[in-house]
Amino acid sequence: MAKLLYKLGMGAHRRRLPVVLIWLLVLIGAGAGAFTLGGETSNSMSIPGQESTTALERIQKTFGSGETATARVVLQAPDGQKLPQNVKAITDLVADASGLKGVRSATNPLDPAAPSVNQDLNVGYSTVTYDVKPGEVTDEQRADLLKAVDKARAAGLTVEVSGTAMQEIPHIGGITEVIGVVLALVVLALTYGSLVTAGMNLLSAAIGVGIGALGITIATGFMDLQSTTPILASMLGLAVGIDYALFIINRYRQELRRGSDVGHAVATAVGTAGSAVVTAGLTVVIALVGLAIAGIPFLTQMGVSAAATIVVAVLIAITLVPAVLSMLGRRVLTRKERAAEASEPKDRGVVRGWAGAVTRNRVAALLLSVVALGIVSIPVASMDTTLIQKPPANSTQERADQILAKGFGEGFNGPIIVLFEGDGAAATATKASEPITKLSDVALVTPAQPSQDGKSALVTVIPKSGPDTVETEKLVADLRAELSDVEGGEAYVTGATAVSVDVATSLDKALPIYLAVVVGLALVLLILVFRSLLVPLVGVLGFLLTIGSSLGATVAVFQWGWLADAVNLDGTGPLISLTPILVIGILFGLAMDYQIFLVSRMHEAHHRGAKPIEAITTGFRQAAPVVIAAALIMFSVFAGFVPAGEPTVKSIAFALAIGIFVDAFVVRMVLVPAALALLGERAWWLPKFLRWLPELDVEGTALDDIEKKDRQEPVAVG
Fold first, then answer.
1. Which residues of 143-155 are buried (b: 16+ CB within 10 A; e: fewer)?
2. What is the reported pLDDT for 703?
3. 140's torsion region: left (phi>0), alpha (psi -120 to 50) or beta?
4. CA dihedral 667, 670, 673, 677 (to 10 degrees)
5. For residue 152, which of 70, 81, 71, 73 has the smallest C-alpha distance?
6. Residue 230 phi, psi (nearest 5)
7. What global pTM score does this model have?
8. What span, in angstroms and rounded, lies between the C-alpha atoms of 564 and 553?
9. In the chain, N or C: fewer CB atoms in 10 Å?
10. d(Cα 173, Cα 402) in Å, to the nearest integer?
11. Separation of CA 181 from chain center
12. Which among 401, 407, 395 is positioned nearest to 72, based on CA atoms?
């Protein structure tokens, strides 16, 4: 692989201008495609084939509900008054809402035929139905509705709005994300000592993210993608794009300082660091594409979309980056370095001291790191997950939910829908309603709503507890048990809580299989890279501690509320159901990145004849500075999505930021060197029956034979 990538790097050097132009054309083409073909993302998180999803599809087909966006305008009468005393203000509000652009209808909460007020007559709601699907309501339409609400507020009513029509599509590019990118630029500038080189690194990564994000936008025109997909893909693409370019540029600078000409330095950087980049990228892609094992379409789409962005980042790192480096030549070095004689970079005292301390005190270092990460992992035992998302703090949606919960009960915001099918479905539903009312945590069961053909009927069950509570989740299971053998037809339990339960169940079943397959494939890849059994095992076992501490810290902050203000947390509660499997998949790939970049230099030193301890310290001194920079960059990018992040992304970004920090600075730079020092020569042992495996040559040792030739025969640049 090293020789192949060496030739690729040399080709990028020789044809640097066409390479740069091709990537710019790809970026422009992706932008044009996104503008003309792009569609809207979706907030749906259901699983085809599950009971809750099947029921929703049949309800939409039979009753037509759920197909369009709706807004629930919640009204509360002034203190000491009832809503009927404000009939004019309410009627005017309904009339104003009905006349808005894109609104199909608006109900009157005081309509005698279908009232929607509580028993005390001080809280009610109007359902405003739009003629577009959820996610397609424009900012202008939302603003128009809020203007109509302000008019009712002026009349003395308390009015707030919630519903699918008020859900905005998550966006990328907030102030905190920008701060994360700026911090990454600062780290790059300090690492290189050159703002030009740092800017080039960041710009190449931005081009990769742009192409990836625009490609996902094009895909939305042909399929329904979950709204979180582009954010996750962009967050990952930016982080790895910066890191992969960093590894290539760092090796190029090393080759220049050794006295290599520009062409040879570019080709060698791609052949050596590029081999590690390709291997690391492949590991991340395996972890992301492996999410398809869960059998959840929207999760598969997230994984494949993010993996595609990673592939673009790798391709840019081994083609565009070397082409731009060829254009910059020796200007990537500082003025002092350009003026100095060719020489190997001096060891950095702190890094050298760190390596020596870890290898000398390997038993203590290993035990301390394992115990510390084990303690941080303890909260994982109490982790709860859900798909129910709370509205933003202090938003009109949150205030609307609070008014409804106070006026109608906590469970009103999380109703459970039961669909009955069969001849005489309404009668069957009415008969089944009696035992349902006797179940614990049931506050109300509405009368059966029959379909036009009489073969279907809907019953709404209002729990006593809130939508994201354990009690409501248990009620879903109790309802299914009660209705499993209903006479006269079939019964299906659905609603947001039921969908959440089904997704959580599917994820719990898929997670062990996912771990086994992804870890197994990655182990095979690492065995090929290092031609060792114990080094990959140490890397994977260290990853388990990374995952434990990452999710443990996330539970402590997002469920328990520890340091909640530091991450601008609106409120505590269960983690989003996707958090564990996404964090495991993404962190595994990124953790193996650091394993490859750090240990490959140790393996290279050992392959060239260094003794085990010497190989560890030599490889550590060479790779640790760039790994530190890479980890700080990735931490900054992920952390930038936390303070003002969209709720689904906030906990995932936090877990990734903590995971990257722990994995780089504790697992890869303390635990792994200490474990390898304890193993000694045995760390590089490969059984005889596996010695037939091919050599990937990530370190680029095969390039030694052509190094002299390339130095003696300068490459003609045309």
1. ebbbebbeebeee
2. 66
3. alpha
4. -130
5. 73
6. -65, -30
7. 0.80
8. 11
9. C
10. 30
11. 17
12. 401
